[in-house]
Automatic annotation (TrEMBL):
GO terms for cellular component: cytosol. Pfam families: Glyco_hydro_1. The keyword Cytoplasm does not apply. It comes from Lactiplantibacillus fabifermentans DSM 21115. This is Pbg10 protein. Belongs to the glycosyl hydrolase 1 family. Gene3D superfamilies: Glycosidases. The keyword ATP-binding does not apply. GO terms for biological process: carbohydrate catabolic process. The lineage of its organism: Bacteria, Bacillati, Bacillota, Bacilli, Lactobacillales. The active site is at residue 386. Keywords: Glycosidase, Hydrolase.
């Protein structure tokens, strides 16, 4: 008789923690030899429901940004000054009991222009110190190599990832990182939410604002192919330089439901799902899936590959699949569905779900569905590296931040994670986004707060930068201490 024990909780050594990005927390954008990045030339949004300025970047807007030496319109230049507060912040993470801290390295701190042959020692030293501070408290760094930024000079000289020449610049950078941090960093990821490369500048660093078919252009998919090749080379480098390390990919998961049982709607949802999973098919399975052949043909995309590219993709398959999960969406074949609001509007509104202050649909069960689908499809360890609630936190009369809504959001998602583990999913960790208030990726505002730790700074950069614990801080501390058992 077949019998197997069903897991009842999270595995021993589960990587509880939080996730950030260099361009949203570090600040110090022009000191210690750091170069200007693509993230630092995107102006803050004027309308939090409209984030077109994230990807509609031109030579003119870049020139304007270069000439502006302030951070007034470019909040990612100031972040929350983690560069000078990292000891204080990591100490607070340790107080919560973090097992892991996901952060990214600013490529332009290591190679300010991106095409140098010698790295900037001051930049490497900063991350030496950050990693040492993590290890002081037993926290494993989980490092994203490129998180929505690259040296701006590579945009000006190569048009970012649109040029194959950028591969060599990237892999020179990754080789330096793997050698410098061998035995120090055990967990790496190549590109953050690599599917963002089909959205435009944020993911590719390429100026394509004159192209009128967003997300389906030759330039964007060609740029993406160069990233796939660069990622595969980096995986090979990592395995050769530090065999004990693990290196993964990272996807923004867009769980899609059919609007009705109509087979046409079901097929529309399946197609949207394929277009989301295409990226992980390449990085986990090591090959372009057949369904993309028709998509490319029907959308005028002809990829330019070199003879060894397909072999590289096979050789450079990742060790684990990291992903972000914030919401799900609904799709109809005729597109006759009420659109969801929010600044990540990829589909229809689901009447069964609540929404956040930013119009993002809250769907904890969708996380369990995603985990099961990923595990069934890929059979590699899974890592939830982003999940959280952006909200308009307010300091109450007692000087505290009572964020029960955040606790409720996270509780529901962690409960569904536990159910997925019972389903048999191999889940290695959970780093919620973002454990300390930071600059929003989408709108560059501070008002959209995710953290357990409140940072006294407003959208204009005013404030003391004082850090203070929200109610959710003690709650997450309890969750980690109990390995996810105490969610009350």
């Amino acid at each position: 008789m077949y019998s197997k024990t069903i897991p009842t909780g999270f595995p021993k050594g589960f990587l509880w923690g939080g996730a950030t990005a260099a361009n949203q927390i570090e600040g110090a954008w022009n000191i210690d030899g750091k170069g200007l990045t693509t993230a630092e030339v995107v102006q803050k949004a004027q309308d939090r429901q409209n984030i077109e300025n994230m990807n509609v970047i031109s030579k003119e807007t870049v020139a304007t940004a270069i000439a502006d030496t302030t951070d007034d319109l470019y909040p990612k230049r100031r972040g929350i000054d983690f560069y000078h507060h990292y000891k204080e912040d990591i100490k607070l993470f340790a107080e919560m009991g973090f097992k892991a801290f996901r952060l990214s390295i600013a490529w332009a701190r290591i190679f300010p222009k991106g095409d140098e042959t010698t790295p900037n020692e001051a930049g490497l030293k900063f991350y030496d110190d950050v990693f040492a501070e993590c290890h002081k408290y037993g926290i494993e760094p989980v490092v994203t190599i490129s998180h929505y930024e690259m040296p701006l000079n590579l945009t000006l000289t190569n048009n970012g990832w649109a040029s194959r020449a950028t591969i060599a610049d990237f892999t020179r950078y990754t080789e330096v990182l793997f050698k410098r941090y061998k035995g120090i960093v055990k967990y790496w990821m190549t590109f953050n939410e690599i599917n963002a490369s089909t959205w435009g500048f944020m993911g590719t660093g390429a100026l394509d604002s004159d192209l009128d078919v967003p997300g389906q252009t030759q330039l964007r998919y060609q740029a993406l192919h160069h990233e796939f090749v660069a990622s595969a080379i980096a995986v090979k480098q990592c395995h050769e330089i530090d065999p004990a390390a693990k290196i993964g990919c990272m996807l923004a998961r867009m769980q899609t439901y059919a609007n009705t049982p109509n087979p046409a709607d079901v097929r529309a949802a399946q197609l949207q799902d394929q277009l989301n999973l295409f990226f992980t098919d390449v990085q986990v399975r090591g090959e372009y899936p057949e369904y993309m052949n028709r998509f490319f043909a029907e959308n005028g995309v002809t990829l330019q590959m070199e003879s060894g590219d397909e072999a590289l993709l096979q050789e450079g398959k990742v060790d684990y699949l990291g992903f972000s999960y914030y919401m799900s969406t609904v799709t109809a074949a005729d597109d006759n569905v009420e659109k969801a609001s929010g600044n990540l509007n990829f589909g229809g509104k689901n009447p069964y779900l609540e929404t956040s202050d930013w119009g993002w649909q809250i769907d904890p069960t969708g996380l369990r569905i995603t985990l099961n689908e990923f595990w069934d499809r890929y059979r590699v360890p899974l890592f939830i590296v982003e999940n959280g609630l952006g909200a308009l936190d307010e300091v109450s009369a007692d000087g505290k931040i009572h964020d029960d809504y955040r606790i409720d959001y996270l509780r529901q998602h962690i409960q569904q994670m536990k159910e997925a583990v019972k389903d048999g999913v191999d889940l290695m960790g959970y780093t919620m986004w973002g454990p300390i208030d930071l600059i929003s990726a989408s709108t560059s505002e501070m008002s959209k707060r995710y953290g357990f730790i409140y940072v006294d700074q407003d959208d204009e950069g005013n404030g003391t930068l004082k850090r203070s614990r929200k109610d959710s801080f003690a709650w997450y501390q309890k969750v980690i201490a109990s390995n996810g058992e105490d969610l009350a």
